Each structure stands twice: as C-alpha cells, then as structure tokens.
Fold:
Amino acid sequence: MITIEQIDSIAKEFEERLGGVTDASSLEALRVEFLGKKGKVTLFLRELGSIPPAERSEFGKRINDLKSRVEFQIAEYSSKLKPVSGKKSDVDWTLPGIQPAAGRLHPLTQMIQKILEIFTRMGFDVVDGREIETEFYNFTALNIPLDHPSRDAFDTFYTRHGNLLRSQTSTVQIRIMEKHKPPLKIVAPGKVYRPDTVDASHSFMFHQIEGLLVDERTTFSDLKGTLAFFLRELFGANTRVRFRPHFFPFTEPSVEVDMSCFNCHGKGCNVCSRTGWIEVLGAGSVHPNVLTAVGISPKKYQGFAFGLGVERMTMLKYGIHDIRYFYENDVRFLNQF
Ligand code: PHE
Structure:
C-alpha cells in the first residue's frame, strides 16, 4: 500500500535530483526514472487500484498532480538546457536546409495565360463561360438547327435533364452578346467535351479559347491582322499565315487558319506532314443569323470570331506527341515546363 508520505517523498526526491541535472542525457535518464514504463510515478498510478475506494480519489489526485508537475518541470528544464560547452551539439546548423518541393502551373494553364496575355495586350477582355450548357447555346443560337448535319461534328454528352456539356467555347459568344451591347472584344478560355475516343491526338475533354469581336466597321482584314499578330507573338516574328475557305455554321465566310511550319519554315518536315503548313485555328465573320438570334442588328454591326485548341497549340510549341500526357499527372512530364 502506498502512503501520502511516500508520494511526498518522491516529489521531494525529484526536486533534488532535477537540481543535479546538467545536460540533456541526464535529464532524459531522470525522465525515464520517474515517468518511464517502470518509473516511480508510473508505479504509483498502477497501484491506485489496490487503494480502498474511499481514499482512492484523494490518492489519485495527489499522484496525478505529481505527474503533471514532473512533466512540466522536465519540459521547462529541457528548454533551458544549453548544449554543454566543449561537447558539440547534435545539430549541424551549417547544413543546407531541405528545399520544399515547389509546384508550378500546368503546361496548359501556362499556355492559356500566355495566349490571354497576347490578346489582352490587343484590348480583348477575358470572360468566363459555363461547361454545362443548353442545346440553345451550343447549337441553335449558333445557327446549327436540329437537323443540320454539322451537329454531328459537335455532338456531345447530354445530362438526363436535357442539358449538355458544351462541345465548343462558341457558346460564350451567345452568352456575352445576350448580356452586353457592342462594341465587344472578348476572349474566353475553357474546357469543352466531345464523345471522341481517346488516342494520341484526341480526348473527350480538351481546352479551347474563343475570340469574339463585334463593332460597327469591322472587316475580314481585322480578323487577318489580329490572328497574324497573335501567331507571330506566340511562334515567332517570321511566321506566315494563310487562310483556307472552310465551313462553320456560325461564321460566314469561314476559314481555317494555317501558319508556316516553325520547324522547317515551310520546306516540309515531319512536324507539318511535309506540307510546310500547320492548321491552327478556325475563324470567320460572325454570321448575321447569330447576331439576329441575340437581338443585335447585322445591318449596323459586324464582327469576327475564332476558336483555337489549347492542347494543340501546346503540343506544337513544345513538340509533345501525345495529348494524354497532359492529363496523367506524371511529374516527370510536368516538371519539364
Ligand atoms: N467552335 C469551332 C470549333 O470548335 C471553332 C470556331 C470558333 C470557328 C469561332 C469559327 C469561329 O471547331
């Protein structure tokens, strides 16, 4: 049976012994002697069960007080202990620190920022759209009627409630023109979705940047100048640009835009499939039906629009041969950017 006197004497003993401690290792030895598995205080606690219930709480309180006091004093003493002179500290303060692993922006984010920076320098505003859209914004308002064959090329994922994942950022053209009056000059980056089978050059999700300019006296040469400037900023000052006739339902006339191959400068190589040219975007003058659909008079206003694929631009610029690298989160790939 333990007695109150025993508890008091252990407390006294601890005080005295602590006074003799000079370094970290003797402090640790003292800690083990009192608080360790078989330490003096620990043994008291174990014996608590054999104390008659009537006295148990009084004893419990005293032992726990002792334990907290010992713990507190050891901690306090330890913080005051200075490394003993003559003996070297265990810590080598001259070692270089551990460098925290710094993250970086994803290559697609970097490319989006670079492209937006070029367009904002030309006075374009950056706007946001939505990824879940209705059929109206993805098709109908963009002059793609329900039975039009060009719907197939943009067909997409539908939700059970009849919404869809947008298959092109051209939806933002409509959203912006509904809300704002011309003059308008915007670029809109974002994700788009298509039911494409994934392979080296296709993904069911990828990123586009849409451009739209609507004003009173815009011509096709404004479109040409804007895109030529953009491509030269991104791929180099001697980049040449050509426009091929194409079809998009929401632009008339429509074009596909090629730039001269930055790798062979037009001679023909494997980057440009030996043609000297690389197709980089789709564009055209805003179709009068699109302006009419949002209540803007095509008699007073004209404009141009363009859409480019961010993955494609990034793959071209850095010679990446497989689109899947962008989505795999492999740091060996990501670290290179
Ligand atoms: N939305 C078209 C596409 O995804 C690109 C485009 C945008 C073409 C604007 C013309 C004008 O292919």
In short: Residues 4-80 form one domain. The first helix runs from residue 4 to 19.
